[in-house]
């Protein structure tokens, strides 16, 4: 018997098994929640669910509206669904328009709207059929982003293809929304700006095209970017420009405090959207 074998045979000499982290335990619990669900039926039913959800929205306002499409792409964490819902509530209150939320949670499998390239396009098209000239669609997208510019759209037992900026741009073009505000709460989010930028578009991104953003785990209520921006935009009378500047400063201070590489949030404002950027909500 080798010395190593003798040592391992001694009482108390074996290494204790590594305990799962809080994040690993949360993910395992989420996977378990998906196991009994009829996922295939939910996938088949998405177009009918989206049609019904849009039909149930309040009648269009007399003037222009700002409908909100909030998307929580990754379903292994509850975080992205929470952030999408919080954003939908705050942004709809700012603009006075209706809101739809797409996300990949067990509850959405049972009776809601899932988040994928297809459902995003279907939802945008349905909102477009309801829209009138002058409406501005607000899209809030939160998920894990990759250095290739793709954003995760998946969950346990659901492997949707990632979404790209081109996917979103094509869907919004097809839906007929010329005026758009797109907020990308994901790593490498500014890589979406070139495909989406136009004179009638505002794009806000959580991180530069070559940087990650932070706070994507279920120990937080929202991501660092989402917490800062949604918090600022929820304050009465705050413009998008002022809210973004304050959120950017807050994020930079937090990143300095914990000594991480700055995420460098970015915004691109189309020439025809300056009033929407600088004006008070409502």
Written description of the protein model:
This protein has 282 residues and is an alpha/beta fold. Helices cover 43% and strands 13% of the residues. The protein contains twelve helices and eight strands. The protein has a six-stranded mixed beta sheet with strand order 2-1-3-6-7-8, sandwiched between helices. It has a two-stranded antiparallel sheet with strand order 4-5. The chain is globular. The termini are far apart.
Provide the succession of SSEs.
Answer: HHHHEHEHHEEEHEHEHHEH
Helix percentage: 40-55%
Please state the average pLDDT score. Answer: 92
Number of helices: 12
Strand order of the largest sheet: 2-1-3-6-7-8
Uncertain stretches: 1-9
> In percent, how much strand structure appears in the residues?
5-15%
- How many strands? 8
Q: What is the approximate shape? A: globular
Secondary-structure-based class equals alpha/beta
Largest pleated sheet: 6 strands, mixed
- What is the distance, rounded to the nearest whole angstrom, between the alpha carbons of the first and last residues? 79 Å
Radius of gyration, in Å, reads 21 Å
Topology:
Blueprint (H helix, E strand, L loop, with lengths): L2 H7 L12 H13 L4 H6 L1 H10 L12 E5 L6 H17 L3 E5 L2 H6 L5 H14 L5 E7 L11 E2 L2 E2 L5 H11 L3 E7 L7 H4 L4 E5 L18 H10 L6 H19 L7 E4 L4 H5 L4
Parallel strand pairs: 1-2, 1-3, 3-6, 6-7
Antiparallel strand pairs: 4-5, 7-8
Helix pairs in contact: 4-7, 5-10, 7-8, 10-11
